[in-house]
Amino acid sequence: MSSSSSNITQRWPSEAHRGQNGFCDSYEPADKEHPNDSTLRNVRYAQWMLEYKGVPLPSKEKLRELGTKKPSPPDTLDYVDEKIKQLKRQHARDLESLFAFQADELRQKMLDHRRCIDDSAYMDIDENYPDQVEFREALRQLDQRMRDDPATKLALEDALSTLRYTYLKTLLPLIRRRRALRDREIKIRKQRDASFPQSIEEYHDIAERDVQLRVARFLAADNTEQEGMMDKFGWAYRQVDPLRTAYKSNAEFRAEIQSALKDIQASDPRRRVNKQLTIEPPFPFTKFSPLQ
After folding, report:
1. I need a surface site. Which of 15, 103, 123, 198 has the fewest CB within 10 A?
2. Per-chain mean pLDDT for the chain
3. Region Disordered: start and end of each range (predicted)?
């Protein structure tokens, strides 16, 4: 930052908030007649907040509706994912609005500066008069400060950091909750994969179709494939032996398993025969002997 910005009020961290997210107020006393840069930055940010995100006061009916107890939102992974997507889209819209607001403000500031420029800057300065030389240098410094405009740059960064902190303050708990829900789903899936029905009744009670088909494939597989599935899903012999014995001894249950697997094979598009490959070619020969 240039030397012209040395008078800009900085935010200094407070020792009382060490390890937390706290900032102390400006070390300069509050003066309503001559507000400091920090106060002006807060006012500009509040103006944007009221203009873009402000809402009118709700009616009595709306207040009563807000006061009624509503059912808590579902604590599911899909719901949390959608909340994160909505929050990111809203943050993108907020950034776009904030940048447009700041660009308009900066443009108006530059226009005001150009309109109020002192014509005396174009007057002939007599170098023999120190007052005239000092006056000219002061005008040059003023024009340079307006071009550099460190106060406005600091205001832009301050508003952006405030908006991003608010965004992250809401986003991080959702990300932590999504991670916890994913871990819970993985744990439930592992527990579900590690379980194996002990009887035909337990097999019929399985609610998940994919789990039921996995058990059916295991029962219809040969010994080598069964060993591989046991290693993959963590099944022990004492888990699979009761139902495997029932599958071998119960012809009706064995027919049910084979019928279920046939239905899956018939509906699997990868196992469908491509009829175009079986159509006879239109010519009697597909290959021609080379010319002698």
Report:
1. 15
2. 77
3. 1-39
